């Protein structure tokens, strides 16, 4: 045991840096809801400022430290608070891209100023080269200072949080900013303080770590990024645990070095110490309880809608673009052609990333890893196993598919931010752990040979080969968007909860899209390797940093699919014409800055109205998905039950949120062929009950049956397929989809279910069924004329009708309608009244209606349940409801004594 | 009279300086060559993340051209060196090679640093442009016809690390500290173990992350294992940090490195004793051929980094080309004739400047044909050549 102590001691200093950096990260995340991927960039910027002052300007180190940490840190905090405030309203993907962009901005500028090579920086802290002996280790005083500083600032922060008014407010602002505001405390000011403290922590980490690793923008950024692992140990919430996690990671890394050196047979694990923070991050995201990985909720702006031109215009554009690309070899200098070929491969990987990010709303920060895996596998197939070129390409790309599935495992339980973090950790982990293995890039300095096919050995023919692959990839992507999977993915992106409750197994969808994306990323990696003839770890195209660059380029690329890829590909050509030494760094700076700006805007600008009008001359807008199909004489839904059947039955349902009882021992029935009301004042537990019935909240007690089948333990998609459909109080529409596509999702989500084939394409019979259901639902809700409109452009009232139509188009026996008339005008409400009656009459389905419009409830409901404070206080028909003093008291207030089935409430 | 702009003043000063210096240079030189210029490309990573140990070709190449021309050129033909920066980027390397081949019409290319050579060697070979190293770490140097490696071959050179450790470092226990990030760094491990086993000395190896904030754990481990010779097979800047961390733990064995790494970083270290194989001549060696190099650089080089990194590699490659083209006595040197001349090189060591006698026959060179190496050292902040220009050959030393 004693022989391990030196390694424990040596690991503590490095761990303290991780812990301190992680603490600042958690602080800002907790108070703003923004996970700052650019946290390392803040640290790096401060480190470069310190170096510039101390080394270049000859300023005393104490002054340089004060300026870099305690002046620049808070100032960067002020800037970050402004950025975070605007990002907080954007989508999760925008939040991630915005902060990732900061990394590129700092890396680009730092490399322009000081070059890419590491500059060693002498230790500046007192007693820089003096040490004292502890457990056979000469502990340097700077290491002691760093550890003590880390401990002190974390303790101070803990005390601030626990005891100071500002600290308490900082904690409260996370949970309920409005409540904080009501207590005469400005939540913006509190967040500003948090960001200033958080960025000061980052700056301090960067300046302190500088003498240990030297001046290198990527190294500094990624070193502080290792704090993500520490933050994961603290479940992204606990500051003391985060610091402890950082120290533990540092100690574990040094202990693992000792262990690995003692075990020569384990040299293949030599990357473990360096990748340990990312392994911890990845594992923590896999094992932490899901409820602890829920980002602070925030109202997000709807993403900007991408306009799609008329089909004729798209075909015309495609022909023109293809003609231009085909003419490139004869137009450009032969010395530049290689850049254009690489541009084509960049376009392919951007298409693969776009499918994931733009279409399905998931973020991958490990696409360069897929590319590397594809290139390595391809080299092995062709050169070591003699597989023909084209077959090897397909096989190698297929190798990346299970890897994509592995990456997607976190996607099953995580989403948005944490999924991005998991992919980020995965990419760096693979790079550090596997890239150095002989089976990856070989033990040769020039890595793996990537041969070209015999039909395209020269540069020009290889260019055309890559162009052909780009065209095929683009067509596949367009086809995916047009087919069922595309609609499901866009639905998953815009309204993940809705598509899940409609019967779609979103876990399968997420894994599926990761697999497809990984496949095409691997193809791009292979083609890129062929363009330059070899693949090595030193090639930036296969390094994890490239994944960040790709995301930034995707973010700033305008237009819808597949045209954004053409823009992205063009960016790869720039270094061919701007050949300056600093061009790559300036490009990274511009990509990063653009990514930040675009993210703050919520996406690339939409097509201006004038241009839309102009382009509309080239033809009609894309036809809505089968909106014009003739109504077929089939029921809207293949209801399993008939009028009077059991429908929905809830027994003794209780739902608790911590110590708060939201619903208690609630029992009710919503039989087939009847409209049943579920009403109550705000906070009564109506939506909570809906969530419990539709499976969105499964931490409940009691029993929920649908047509006699116990679904209590089933997930939302299974319940959807068993017949429960619903609408949402806060609407869940696919804003990027047309109205018709939204409505079709109501049927298609259930048809797709959890089967891969069904999610990919619809059978002819399913298409006919969905067509008919869509058309009928659109007409029934009176919105057939809106079929081709993008849902995101509609008024609230019309969006309600679209959501209702989507529910009606589904194959549901029980419809849970959550305030469906909210936002409807008087005429629309009257029409809605009629729609509901018709649906129940024609289909015999069960409707459970949550509604504040009492006249609508009294008009359409045959039976009504009333909740207050989570308990049932009344049930009966509308006349009884209208005369019930209990109900009146609940709505108007007062003390009422209940009797019979109900209980006393006060 | 209008004031001269800063640029104009600078140009004027430069012209005056040129007018004053050209006659002086010409006075010491042979007859000015008047034939068709022989255009030679020098390509390497002059910028980018690997530039610190790879950029010296851009200093040595133009200086070599001036040196040769001052001596009357090659068979009366002046030489012209065109520099091409690969930027450490394969795409840029391809464009640079195409520019050399298609626009500059070079007859041969010296690959001063070969980080990206695999990206363009096929194209150069297809155009019959002879490729000479520089550093020759890439496999292609040994497997492709039309490529002419001039230093110690890479696998034999790896053996040299252990041979130098035993012969010059007096090692009892050898540690291979290899970079954790790149698989190629590991390739020395089995070779070094084999050599140290034969020599009867201990062996261990550790993967080193070049971005680690501290190397205390590794130093403590080496110390506990009584390693007295530690070979630094990872990036130079990290190696400097590694040595400092170990010294702070009171552990300061004899260090192993290479000629290319013997730059300012190591020179700044105190109490640092280093040995290593030199695959091209050490620029400090006492030898007439090396003196020519030093004198030429002092006279013609614009930069001061010629004694570091790939400086001597580039010079050796250029001088092999010089010798080969010198054999072309009839007609203008063309790509074909240069390629033929290079393929006809027999037992050439440039009067001892090369560690091996080179023979090329138009076929791939293969591994193990150039096993000998020189030895470089460092002590008291100065680079040394412990064995001067006497090559050490592992096959004969075991």
As a whole number of angstroms, the C-alpha radius of gyration of chain B is: 22 Å
Q: Assign the structural class of chain B, choosing from mainly alpha, mainly beta, alpha/beta, alpha+beta, or little secondary structure.
A: alpha/beta
Poorly predicted ranges of chain B: 1-28
General shape of chain A: globular
Largest sheet of chain B: 7 strands, mixed
The N- and C-terminal alpha carbons of chain A lie at a distance of 64 Å
Mean pLDDT of chain B: 88
Q: What is the number of helical segments of chain B per DSSP (H or I, 4+ residues)?
A: 15
Question: What gross morphology of chain B would you assign?
Answer: elongated
Low-pLDDT parts of chain A are: 623-643, 894-906
* Side-by-side strand order of the widest sheet of chain B: 7-6-8-9-10-11-12
| Strand and helix order of chain B | HEHHEHEHEHEHEHEHEHEHEHHHEEH
Strand order of the largest sheet of chain A: 10-11-12-7-13-14
Kindly report how far apart the N and C termini of chain B lie.
77 Å
Largest sheet data of chain A: 6 strands, mixed
In total, how many beta strands of chain B?
A: 12
Number of strands of chain A: 14
Quickly give the structural class of chain A. Answer: alpha/beta
So how many helices of chain A?
37
Q: Helical percent range of chain A? A: 55-70%
- Strand coverage percent of chain B: 15-25%
Explain what you see.
The complex is a heterodimer of chains A (906) and B (398). By secondary structure, chain A is of the alpha/beta class. The longest helix of chain A is centred in the N-terminal third of the chain and has 28 residues, at 5-32. Chain B contains 15 helices and twelve strands. Chain B has helices at residues 6-28, 51-54, 57-70, 90-103, 117-126, 140-143, 154-167, 188-199, 216-224, 236-248, 264-267, 288-300, 311-326, 335-343, 394-397; strands at 38-44, 79-85, 108-111, 130-133, 147-148, 173-179, 202-208, 229-233, 254-256, 274-278, 374-379, 382-384. In chain B, helix 6 (140-143) links the parallel strand 4 (130-133) and strand 5. The longest helix of chain B is centred in the first third of the chain and has 23 residues, at 6-28.
């Amino acid at each position: 045991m004693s022989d391990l102590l030196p390694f424990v001691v040596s690991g503590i200093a490095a761990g303290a840096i991780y812990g301190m950096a992680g603490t600042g990260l958690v602080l800002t995340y907790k108070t703003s809801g923004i996970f700052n991927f650019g946290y390392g960039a803040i640290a790096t910027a401060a480190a470069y400022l310190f170096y510039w002052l101390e080394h270049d300007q000859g300023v005393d180190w104490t002054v340089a430290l004060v300026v870099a940490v305690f002046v620049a840190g808070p100032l960067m905090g002020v800037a970050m608070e402004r950025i975070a405030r605007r990002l907080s309203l954007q989508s999760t993907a925008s939040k991630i891209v915005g902060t990732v962009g900061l990394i590129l901005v700092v890396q680009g500028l730092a490399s322009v100023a000081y070059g890419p090579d590491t500059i060693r920086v002498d230790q500046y802290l007192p007693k820089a080269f003096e040490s004292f002996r502890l457990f056979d280790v000469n502990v340097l005083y700077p290491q002691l200072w760093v550890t003590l500083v880390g401990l002190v600032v974390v303790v101070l922060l803990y005390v601030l949080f626990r005891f100071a008014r500002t600290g308490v407010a900082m904690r409260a602002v996370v949970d309920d900013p409005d409540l904080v505001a009501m207590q005469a405390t400005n939540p913006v000011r509190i967040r500003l303080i948090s960001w200033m403290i958080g960025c000061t922590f980052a700056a301090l980490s960067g300046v302190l770590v500088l003498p240990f690793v030297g001046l290198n923008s990527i190294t500094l950024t990624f070193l502080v990024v290792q704090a993500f692992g520490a933050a994961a140990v603290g479940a992204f919430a606990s500051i003391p645990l985060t610091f402890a996690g950082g120290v533990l990671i540092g100690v574990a890394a040094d202990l693992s070095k000792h262990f690995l050196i003692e075990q020569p047979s384990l040299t293949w694990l030599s990357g473990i110490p360096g990748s340990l923070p990312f392994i911890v991050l990845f594992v923590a995201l896999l094992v932490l309880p899901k409820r602890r990985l829920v980002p602070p909720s925030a109202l997000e702006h709807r993403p900007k809608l991408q306009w799609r031109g008329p089909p004729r215009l798209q075909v015309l554009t495609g022909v023109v673009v293809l003609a231009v690309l085909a003419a490139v070899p004869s137009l450009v200098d032969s010395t530049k052609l290689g850049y254009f070929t690489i541009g084509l491969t960049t376009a392919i990987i951007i298409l693969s990333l776009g499918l994931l990010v733009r279409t399905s709303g998931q973020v991958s920060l490990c696409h360069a890893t897929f590319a590397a895996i594809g290139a390595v596998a391809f080299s092995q197939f062709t050169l070591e196993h003699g597989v023909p070129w084209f077959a090897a390409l397909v096989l190698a790309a297929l190798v990346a598919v299970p890897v994509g599935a592995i990456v997607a495992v976190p996607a099953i339980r995580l989403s948005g931010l944490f999924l991005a973090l998991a992919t980020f950790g995965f990419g760096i982990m693979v790079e550090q752990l596997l890239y150095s293995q002989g089976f990856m890039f070989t033990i040769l300095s020039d890595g793996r040979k990537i041969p070209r096919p015999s039909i395209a050995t020269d540069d020009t023919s290889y260019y055309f080969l890559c162009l052909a692959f780009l065209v095929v990839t683009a067509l596949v992507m367009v086809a995916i968007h047009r087919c069922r999977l595309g609609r499901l993915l866009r639905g998953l992106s815009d309204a993940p909860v809705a598509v899940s409750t409609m019967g779609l197994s979103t876990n399968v969808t997420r894994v599926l899209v990761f697999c497809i994306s990984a496949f095409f990323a691997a193809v791009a990696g292979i083609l890129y390797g062929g363009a330059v003839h070899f693949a090595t770890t030193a090639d930036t195209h296969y390094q994890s940093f490239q994944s960040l660059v790709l995301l930034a380029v995707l973010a700033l690329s305008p237009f819808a699919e597949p045209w954004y890829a053409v823009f992205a590909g063009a960016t790869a050509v720039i270094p061919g014409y701007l050949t300056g030494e600093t061009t790559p760094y300036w490009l990274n700076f511009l990509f990063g800055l653009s990514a930040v700006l675009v993210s703050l805007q919520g996406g690339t600008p939409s097509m201006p109205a004038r241009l839309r009008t102009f382009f509309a001359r080239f033809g009609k807008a894309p036809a809505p998905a089968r909106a014009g199909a003739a109504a077929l004489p089939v029921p809207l839904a293949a209801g399993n039950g008939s009028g009077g059947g059991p429908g929905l039955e809830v027994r003794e349902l209780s739902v608790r949120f911590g110590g708060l009882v939201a619903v208690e021992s609630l029992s009710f029935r919503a039989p087939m062929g009847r409209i049943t009301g579920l009403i109550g004042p705000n906070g009564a537990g109506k939506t909570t009950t809906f969530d419990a019935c539709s499976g969105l909240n499964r931490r409940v007690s009691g029993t929920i049956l649908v047509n006699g089948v116990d679904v209590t333990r089933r997930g939302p998609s299974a319940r959807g397929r068993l017949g429960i459909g619903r609408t949402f109080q806060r609407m869940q529409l696919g804003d990027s989809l047309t109205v018709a596509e939204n409505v079709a999702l109501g049927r298609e989500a259930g048809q797709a279910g959890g089967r891969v084939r069904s999610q990919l394409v619809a059978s002819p019979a399913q298409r006919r069924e969905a067509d008919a259901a869509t058309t009928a639902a659109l007409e029934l809700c009176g919105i057939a004329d809106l079929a081709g409109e993008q849902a995101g452009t509609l008024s609230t009232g019309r969006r309600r009708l679209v959501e209702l139509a989507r529910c009606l188009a589904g194959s549901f026996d029980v419809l849970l309608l959550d305030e469906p008339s909210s936002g409807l005008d008087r005429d629309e409400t009257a029409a809605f009244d009629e729609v509901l009656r018709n649906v129940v009459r024609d289909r015999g389905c069960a409707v459970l209606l949550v509604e504040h419009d009492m006249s609508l409830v009294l008009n359409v409901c045959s039976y009504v349940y009333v909740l207050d404070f989570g308990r049932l206080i009344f049930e009966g028909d509308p006349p009884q409801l209208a005369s019930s003093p209990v109900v009146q008291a609940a709505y108007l207030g007062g003390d009422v004594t209940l009797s019979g089935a109900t209980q006393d409430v006060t | 009279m209008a004031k001269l702009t800063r640029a104009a003043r600078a140009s004027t000063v430069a012209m005056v300086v040129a007018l004053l210096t050209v006659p002086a240079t010409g006075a010491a030189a042979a007859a000015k060559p008047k034939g068709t210029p022989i255009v030679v490309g020098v390509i390497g990573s002059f910028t980018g993340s690997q530039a610190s140990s790879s950029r010296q070709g851009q200093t040595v190449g133009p200086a070599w051209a001036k040196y040769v021309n001052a001596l009357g050129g090659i068979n009366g033909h002046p030489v012209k060196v065109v520099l091409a920066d690969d930027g450490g980027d394969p795409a840029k390397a391809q464009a640079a090679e195409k520019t050399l081949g298609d626009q500059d019409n070079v007859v041969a290319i010296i690959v001063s640093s070969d980080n990206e050579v695999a990206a363009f060697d096929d194209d150069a070979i297809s155009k019959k442009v002879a490729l000479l190293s520089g550093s020759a770490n890439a496999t292609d140097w040994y497997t492709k016809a039309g490529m002419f490696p001039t230093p110690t071959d890479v696998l034999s050179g790896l053996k040299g690390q252990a041979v130098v450790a035993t012969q010059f470092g007096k090692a009892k226990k050898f540690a291979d500290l290899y970079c954790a990030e790149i698989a190629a760094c590991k390739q020395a491990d089995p070779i070094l173990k084999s050599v140290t086993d034969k020599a009867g000395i201990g062996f261990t190896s550790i993967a080193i992350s070049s971005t680690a904030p501290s190397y205390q754990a590794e130093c403590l481990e080496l110390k506990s294992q009584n390693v007295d010779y530690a070979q630094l097979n990872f990036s130079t800047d990290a190696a400097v940090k590694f040595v400092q961390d170990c010294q702070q733990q009171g552990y300061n064995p004899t260090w192993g490195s290479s000629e290319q790494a013997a730059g300012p970083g190591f020179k700044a270290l105190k109490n640092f004793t280093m040995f290593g194989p030199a695959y091209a001549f050490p620029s400090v060696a006492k030898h007439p051929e090396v003196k020519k190099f030093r004198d030429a650089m002092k006279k013609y080089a614009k930069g001061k980094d010629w004694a570091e990194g790939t400086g001597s590699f580039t010079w050796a490659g250029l001088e092999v080309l010089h010798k080969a083209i010198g054999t072309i006595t009839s007609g203008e040197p063309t790509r074909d004739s240069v390629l033929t001349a290079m393929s006809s090189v027999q037992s050439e060591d440039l009067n001892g400047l090369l560690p091996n006698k080179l023979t090329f026959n138009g076929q791939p060179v293969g591994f193990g044909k150039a096993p000998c190496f020189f030895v470089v050292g460092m002590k008291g902040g100065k680079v040394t050549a412990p064995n001067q220009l006497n090559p050490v050959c592992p096959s004969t030393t075991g």
